[in-house]
Amino acid sequence: MNRITPILTSGSRLTLSVKRWFTHIEHKLEEAGRVGDPPLRKVAAVVVVQNPYAGQSVDDLTPMIDASEELGVFVSKIAVDAMGGYAVQSYGKGGIVGLDGEQEHANALVTSKFAEPLRKATGGGQAWISSYTKRAAPGVTIDIPLAHKDALYVRSHYDGMSLNLPDAPLADEIAVIVCLANRGRIGARVGGLQAHQAKGDGLY
User: Fold this and answer.
1) What are phi and psi of 14, to 5 degrees?
2) pLDDT 10s digit of each residue in the chain, 204 long?
3) What residue ranges do the domains of the chain occupy?
4) Does the N-terminal peptide bond of residue 117 adopt cis geometry, omega within 30 degrees of 0?
5) Helices (H) then strands (E): counts for the chain
6) DSSP secondary structure, 75-104, as one string
7) Chain CA centroid to CA 201, Å
8) Which CATH architecture has domain 3-197?
9) Nearest to residue 50, comparing CAs of 119, 12, 94, 3?
10) pTM for the structure as a whole
11) Cα 156–161–167 angle (5° rounding)?
């Protein structure tokens, strides 16, 4: 699969050309002498696409937002596959736009239209999905926040992933990122709502 070509509601087409994708997997067995049972598995799926609006000033980003839905399906599958069978408890998203684009271009690709396929792929998360975007050159580091997918007030799951993209995004590209985790921090003990107590209403 190397092209994503959704049909927009306006009847026009916007093609997002996928340049490359990769995954980052962290599988942590222990933290400060505390053994994780189960281990903490965090994954990031990064899909780099051509920025169709690089070098342009475009007021209406609706075509890009609409195109992000199929992109969400694509990157979510990569991320869930990388979990290796572990059930997803936390998620986060983000993006980096190259220097010929605007930060708003990355934001257009990670709105709720992009996020709904992620919710479905992870079992129907109820919580708001934490996100972060920036404009930068290749080699930048980005911190993608993680939180419980069904209840934001579960403190044990406040976490994140730090990613370094050595060759992305180029000036006319956008790197779109999804991060997942199977549990909270190993050794989490700052109180508050516990994951097993969550009602799954998005907050509690």
Assistant:
1) -125, 125
2) 455 554 333 345 788 999 999 999 999 999 999 999 999 999 999 999 999 999 998 999 999 999 999 999 999 999 999 999 999 999 999 999 999 999 999 999 999 999 999 999 999 999 999 999 999 999 999 999 999 999 999 999 999 999 999 999 999 999 999 999 999 999 999 999 999 999 999 999
3) 3-197
4) no
5) 3, 8
6) HHHHHHHHTTTPPP-EEEEEEEE-TTS-HH
7) 21
8) 2-Layer Sandwich (3.30)
9) 3
10) 0.93
11) 175
How far apart (Å, rounded) are the C-alpha atoms in residues 98 and 81? 27
Range list of β-strands (E), the chain: 3-4, 16-31, 34-50, 90-97, 131-135, 141-148, 159-164, 173-181
- Cross-strand partners of 20: 48
Distance CA 104, CA 196 (A): 37
Give the β-pairing of 16-31 and 3-4. Answer: antiparallel
Residue 55: half-sphere exposure toward Cβ, Cα within 13 Å: 4
> Two tokens at 99?
């220097």
Q: In the block, which residue shows the tokens 């580091």?
A: 141
Tokens 């050794």 found at: 187
Give the integer Cα–Cα distance in Å for 20 and 49. Answer: 7
